[in-house]
Write a structure and sequence with these properties.
This protein is of the alpha/beta class. It has 9 helices and 10 strands. Helix 3 packs across helix 4, helix 6 crosses helix 7 and helix 7 runs antiparallel to helix 8. The structure holds S-adenosylmethionine (SAM). This is Ribosomal RNA small subunit methyltransferase I.
Length: 244
């Protein structure tokens, strides 16, 4: 069926490619990619030879329109270098244009570092705010953290090894000692989750810069600890008892 298919690819372990994703890429007439070398390797691994077209959100309107026009009559796949397209990756403008043009847009879901990290880090997952990468500059970083500090939810950031210690220090300074988790190299050989307070982990990573890919997760402010619904029920019953 023709349309634009947004296809998730693995975030490290190639075996995480879903059967649907493989089938779709096989059926695709055009694969819109962030970097043809990266996706070329994946296609090669899958034994597929495909017409790739470089696409990102800085691509011109003409390029976008041409992909949307193609998706009217053919299967067009959008992939990024790793994980789910549009999640700190290109694709937003393309999806928006396709929808506006009435071209069907389908999802082939799969890995994303945000959900992979949240699912194993042990911090509350009932409410979370994904904020992508923090700004590089110290002042902008503190401004962003201050704004996000108001939110009563777990915060999720993408990070890079060389910046991790500085980000953790800024978090400790702005929020005090919230519980944080550093999820590294998910689905790969050296997958690891390290938890502690922001200042503990700032010291740890200042002493040794971490290697590989990183998701940084910050627990919610203290007054928003997720309650066990059992506790809430018990407290309610007790309150009702004292009222009667
Ligand atoms: N679209 C991707 C997704 O759905 O996860 C994210 C793309 S973003 C440009 C790349 C960042 O995601 C990395 O810098 C890192 O912060 C995070 N990331 C990607 N793969 C990861 C992995 N295997 N382990 C930990 N973090 C990862």
């Amino acid at each position: 069926e023709s349309g634009l298919y947004v296809v998730a690819t693995p975030i490290g372990n190639l075996a995480d490619m879903s059967q649907r994703a493989i089938d779709l890429l096989e059926a695709a007439e055009i694969v819109a990619v962030e970097d043809s070398r990266v996706t070329g390797k994946l296609l090669h691994h899958l034994g597929l030879k495909k017409k790739m077209r470089r696409y990102n959100d800085h691509s011109g309107e003409a390029e976008r329109e041409s992909l949307v026009a193609a998706a009217r009559g053919a299967v067009v796949a959008l992939v990024s270098d790793a994980g789910t397209p549009l999640i700190s990756d290109p694709g937003y403008k393309l999806v928006r244009s396709a929808r506006a043009a009435g071209v069907p847009v389908y999802t082939i879901p799969g890995a994303s570092a945000v959900t992979a990290a949240l699912s194993i880090c042990g911090l509350p997952t009932d409410r979370f705010l994904f904020a992508g990468f923090l700004p590089n500059k110290a002042k902008a970083r503190v401004e962003t953290l201050t704004e996000l500090g108001q939110v009563k939810a777990t915060l999720v950031f993408y990070e890079a090894g060389p910046r991790l210690a500085a980000s953790l220090s800024a978090i400790a300074e702005t929020y005090g000692d919230r519980e944080v988790a550093v999820a590294r190299e998910l689905t790969k050989k050296f997958e690891e989750v390290v938890t502690g307070t922001a200042s503990e982990l700032a010291a740890r990573y200042a002493a040794q810069e971490p290697k590989g890919e990183i998701v940084l997760i910050v627990g919610p402010p203290a007054d928003d600890v997720a309650y066990d619904t059992g506790d809430v029920d018990a407290a309610l019953r007790e309150a009702l008892d004292t009222m009667s």
